[in-house]
Q: What sequence folds into this?
C-alpha cells in the first residue's frame, strides 16, 4: 500500500490535524530559506504532541551532520530527508553515526538527475529554486515503474491528481505540502481527503 507523507507542519493545529487523518509520515522543514522552516525548539514541541503512529521526517538543505545527528538523538525526528547537494560521502558519514533511515531528494526537470546508491529511499520532486514545496508537477513518464529503490513521489500532488499518481506509478509514498493547504495553511479537510484517496487507490 502506498504511504502518505504530509510535509511542512509548523503549528500545534497542524499536528492535531495530522493526528486525525494519520498519514504515515509528516515533515518538519529545517531548510534555512524555506517559508515553512521551523526551529529545533518548535519541532521538539510539535513532535511531543504527534501520534506515535506517525514518523517525523526532518527536511534539510546542505546543513551540518552534527545538526542532523542532534535532532535524531533527541528524538525530534525519526527519518532524515536530504534536499540539497549532499553527496554519497555525506550520507555514508550519517549512516556511520545514526540508524535512522535516509531519504535523498532527486530534482526532476527534463531529465532525472544522478541518483543516490547509499540512501535508503529516493524522493523525486520538481526541480525548482525552492527545492520543494513549489506545487509544481513534473513529467511522471520520466519515472520508470522499475525503479529499484523505493521512492517518495513529490511535486504538485493534490486531491485532484493523487489517485492517478498512485495508480500509475505505485510509489512507496506520496509526499504533499502545498496541495493540502488553503491560504498557506494546512487544511484538515484536504489532509483527510488526500489520505483517504491514497488508501482507496491502493486497496
A:
Amino acid at each position: 500500500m502506498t504511504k502518505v507523507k504530509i510535509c511542512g507542519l509548523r503549528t500545534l493545529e497542524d499536528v492535531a490535524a495530522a493526528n486525525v487523518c494519520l498519514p504515515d509520515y509528516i515533515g518538519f522543514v529545517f531548510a534555512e530559506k524555506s517559508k515553512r522552516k521551523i526551529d529545533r525548539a518548535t519541532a521538539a514541541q510539535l513532535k511531543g504532541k504527534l501520534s506515535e503512529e506517525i514518523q517525523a521526517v526532518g527536511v534539510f538543505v546542505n546543513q551540518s551532520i552534527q545538526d542532523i545527528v542532534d535532532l535524531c538523538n533527541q528524538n525530534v525526528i525519526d527519518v532524515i530527508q536530504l534536499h540539497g547537494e549532499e553527496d554519497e560521502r555525506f550520507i555514508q558519514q550519517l549512516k556511520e553515526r545514526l540508524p535512522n533511515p535516509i531519504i535523498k531528494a532527486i530534482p526532476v526537470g527534463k531529465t532525472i538527475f544522478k541518483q543516490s546508491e547509499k540512501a535508503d529511499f529516493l524522493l523525486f520532486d520538481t526541480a525548482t529554486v525552492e527545492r520543494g514545496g513549489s506545487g509544481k508537477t513534473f513529467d511522471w513518464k520520466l519515472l520508470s515503474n522499475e525503479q529499484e529503490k523505493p521512492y517518495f513521489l513529490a511535486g504538485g500532488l493534490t486531491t485532484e491528481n493523487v489517485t492517478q499518481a498512485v495508480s500509475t506509478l505505485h510509489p512507496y509514498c506520496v509526499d504533499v505540502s502545498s496541495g493540502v493547504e488553503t491560504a498557506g495553511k494546512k487544511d484538515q479537510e484536504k489532509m483527510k481527503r488526500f489520505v483517504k484517496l491514497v488508501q482507496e487507490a491502493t486497496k
About this structure: The chain is about 30% helix and 20% strand. The mean pLDDT is 91. The chain has one domain: 3-201. The longest helix spans residues 188-201.
